Amino acid sequence: MAATVGSAGSPAAVEIAAAAPSRAPSREAAPLSEHDATDESTLLSSAGRALSEGKATEALDVLALHERNYPRSPRVQLREALVIQALVQAGRRADARARAERLRAAFPHTLFLPAIEAAISRAHEGPRQGAAPAPGGALTPQ
Fold first, then answer.
1. What's the pLDDT score for residue 129?
2. Of 59, 62, 21, nearest to 39 (Cα)?
3. Cβ pair 66, 44 in contact under 8 A
4. Cβ–Cβ < 8 Å for 6, 127
5. Residue 27: how many CB atoms within 10 A of its CB?
6. Closest Cα to residue 80, out of 119, 133, 121, 125?
7. How far apart are the C-alpha atoms of 92 and 32, rounded to whole Å?
8. For a disulfide at 81, which of 66, 104, 112, 133, Cβ 3.0-4.6 Å?
9. What is the CA radius of gyration of the chain?
10. H or E segment to which residue 2 belongs
11. Terminus-to-terminus CA distance in the chain, angstroms?
12. Which of 126, 51, 41 is CA-nearest to residue 82?
């Protein structure tokens, strides 16, 4: 299952696999029951859907709920990547950069860093005049 993350009209989308294992799982991650895992996945999918529809504020609200309900989630890296994408989409570039720095400090080998850094870099450059979204130009965690 994957959540496509990006803003409407952005040069590229960031596709982040919701079930992707991380190289550096949180040491504090608590096991989730099957019911909790389903609820958690639903929240993350909802946030990704909101982002793909250009609804950054809605995505941030859903992700804040996820953080409250699952503070020690094994998917914390995905949540943080989605939050950073939503902050970029909302035009809150300084907040996105600060959150990315915290993610980098906590998970220096996370698979999401290249996609996050690219999104922040593109946001810093601003939209190019006449640029159209690249078909199939999705960024994925590497």
1. 42
2. 62
3. yes
4. no
5. 6
6. 119
7. 32
8. 112
9. 14
10. strand 2-5
11. 17
12. 51
Residue 92: CB partners within 8 Å, gap ≥ 6?
none
**Using one digit for the tens of pLDDT, what is the confidence trace for 44-66?**
999 999 999 999 999 999 999 99
16 membership: H or E segment, kind and range: strand 14-17
How is residue 88 written in tokens? Answer: 């970029």
3-state secondary structure of 18: coil
Contact criterion met (CB below 8 Å) for 89 and 114: no
Q: What is the pTM of this model?
A: 0.67
Written as six digits, the tokens of 96 are 């996105």
Residue 87 contacts residue 60 (beta carbons within 8 Å): yes
Average pLDDT, the chain: 75
Amino acid, res. 126: G
- List of long-range contacts for 90-93, beta carbons under 8 Å, 24+ apart: 90/56, 90/57, 90/60, 93/120, 93/123, 93/124
> Half-sphere exposure of 66 toward its Cβ, with a 13 Å CA cutoff?
28
